From TrEMBL:
InterPro entries: Arginosuc_syn_C, Arginosuc_syn_N, Arginosuc_synth, AS_cat/multimer_dom_body, Rossmann-like_a/b/a_fold. Residues 183-358 form the Arginosuccinate synthase C-terminal domain. Keywords: Amino-acid biosynthesis, Arginine biosynthesis, ATP-binding, Ligase, Nucleotide-binding. Its EC number is 6.3.4.5. Residues 12-151 form the Arginosuccinate synthase-like N-terminal domain. This is argininosuccinate synthase. The keyword Iron-sulfur does not apply. It holds the Pfam family Arginosuc_syn_C. Pathway: Amino-acid biosynthesis; L-arginine biosynthesis; L-arginine from L-ornithine and carbamoyl phosphate: step 2/3. The keyword ATP-binding applies. The lineage of its organism: Bacteria, Bacillati, Actinomycetota, Actinomycetes, Streptosporangiales.
Amino acid sequence: MGPSKNDERIGLLQSGGLSSLAVGVWLHELPAPARHYIADIGQSDRAEMDALAASLRRFGDEVSVIDLRSSMAAVASDLLRYRARHDGGYWNTTGAARFVLVSEVTPLMRADGCRRFAHGCVGGGNDQRRFARYGAQIAPELPIIEPWTDPQALERFPDRRTMLEAVVEHGLDLDPGSGAERSTDANLAGISHESAELEDLETPVTRLDPRWSRWPGQTPDEPETVTVVFRDGRVADVDGSGPDPVEWMARANQVGARHGIWLRDVVERRIIGTVCRGIYEAPGLELLDRAWTRVLQAGLDPAGRDLYDRLASTLGDAMYEARWLEPAAHAARDAIDRLVGELDGKVTLSVHRGIARVDRMKVVARVPQQTRFGSGGNRWSRMAAV
């Protein structure tokens, strides 16, 4: 659906990436009155977002900058609790961000008088489907403009090279991970990398320039210990961070990135039925999952763990396909909440050169721990801390 012919204001989700900036240029040239919404979901320093906003205001457009780090961190906590991963075990950080953006920004658009909303995602891709599904569920009164399915937009910008020329010409601040041949999508939970070079499956993964993380060979010589506390089946502290998910996610990201705990290189099955290579950084979630795995091992009986894994697979697909609000996903989350809602524990990890090893742990378990060697070879402990 293209821009309206009248003066209806359009809300544009503005990431600072090449395609969304090009959409801003296109709408400005039509002209169609657009307001840019820059969401801080932990993708970069606030100073970079403020610089982007300033460049758009100089361009002559309206801009709002919104702090959504708490909402993004809350969904990241859900990704871990429900182990909502996709092909190759990578975390659904991009799909989660789309859920946060539509949930949190569309009410602001309505309040500002917007009658439509737009995004810069490629036509026919995963994110176009995600925005369409969440938009229909959360903000059905705001029709979606999908520029890269619009003949006018495609005529103005037939390729990424022409997009880059326009963005540079107008002095707009471009995300450093986005250009004519590559793009990144980042938030507090992780980063996805795509490029023309990396789409070739023969390209070595080492050609990637990670945004946050180090390769294992570049990490410190000495290991680092980090202690993760779980309460009621959720992270409550990471080395003194406290229970705020923004704080513990940031702390986990720092440790994981510093020690090379991050890489997922996968050929993923996409919503539209194709496969495509993607490379993902999620250092915090990768680190925390090592500890969460041990809590699940000690805290669930075999039947409970088997059910958890099957439900987690359902939720991984739901987040990837933008079905997080549908009944099956609600039911799966409710069931996992019953399984893990009372699990408490403390796990200390030793982190070194791409490996996070459990050093020690204390978990309040529901399953009796076998202590045959410590009790004469013929006894079982009662349900107790492991």
